[in-house]
Amino acid sequence: MALLAVGMSANAQFLEDKNNEFGNAGGVNLGDGVDENDSWTLHVNFGVNVPTSVPDDIEFAPFRSWEIGVTVLQYDYTPKNWKTTFSAGLGFDWRNYTLKGHDNAFEKFPASKIKQPNDCVYVVTPVDKCDARSSRIHTVSLSMPLLVKQSFSKNFAISVGAQLNWNFRAHLHNYYEEGDIEITEDTKKIGQRPFTVDVLGIVHVYKYGIYCKYSPMSVLKTDRGPEFKSLAFGLYF
Q1: CA-to-CA distance for 23 and 78, rounded, in angstroms?
Q2: Mean pLDDT of successive 10-residue segments in the chain (237 residues)?
Q3: pLDDT confidence of residue 109
Q4: For the chain, what is the radius of gyration of the CA atoms?
């Protein structure tokens, strides 16, 4: 944040050719805006999810937990004589959280103390007589990144901001073998938190980026399952 503040105070030099400056060269250029100061772009990110604040009785496998994001349409605005770009986008985010090992799984069970007829909790339970089992939580979100990007040189920039998410779909996916039989189970209505906000930072080098995203809100609703958060990092284009 200190670097960003210093950079934003150094806007005296006008970016005469913004397409040659990194701040407007990343992603796929979809076209110019109403004038030379704005444009439309498309971006993709691919990374690893590392669940945080995990209950003691649960272990996740970070490098089997992935995230893929696509900002289908992003509006970028760079004020005249500035090296700062303001962006707002709309896209989709796919995330999964995979349990460690092959001997336990997420299962959906009725709550022991039901307050409403459809209340359920989700617990990790041992699985007997199963081989090579995997168990994960999938979420799909409509995302809106809001970013401020500061260019420090032609090939170096930093973006900070937030990502708003509408988590409109989530399910449990279990795969295992019983003897020679392969079994796949998908369970819907798992009680995901419908709206979340992430903190997002990106370091841009040339036309490539490395991002880090922290989700301070739990993936599942309170009392609907194990409460855990997410830290993701990876590549941003």
Answers
A1: 9
A2: 40 38 64 82 95 87 91 94 94 94 80 55 64 85 97 93 97 84 87 95 93 95 87 96
A3: 77
A4: 21
Residue 127 is predicted with a pLDDT of 65
C-beta separation of 151 from 85 below 8 A? yes
Tokens (6 digits) for 54: 């995990």
Q: What angle do CA 164, 169, 172 make, to 5 degrees?
A: 125
Phi/psi region, residue 191 (left: phi>0; alpha: psi -120 to 50; beta: rest), is left
Angle at 16 between CA 13 and CA 22, to 5 degrees: 85
pLDDT of residue 24: 43
Looking only at the bridges linking them, the beta strands covering 104-110 and 120-126 are antiparallel
pLDDT at 35: 78
pLDDT, residue 5, reads 41
Residue 140 tokens, joined: 């799909």
**Three-class SS string for the chain?**
CHHHHHHHCCCCCCCCCHHHCHHHCCCEEEEECCCCCEEEEEEEEEEEEEEECCCCCCCECHHHCEEEEEEEEEEEECCCCCCEEEEEEEEEEEEEEEECCCCEEEEEEECCCCCCCCCEEEEEEECCCCEEEEEEEEEEEEEEEEEEEEEEECCEEEEEEEEEEEEEEEEEEEEEEECCEEEEEEEECCCECCEEEEEEEEEEECCEEEEEEEECCCCECCCCCCCCEEEEEEEEC
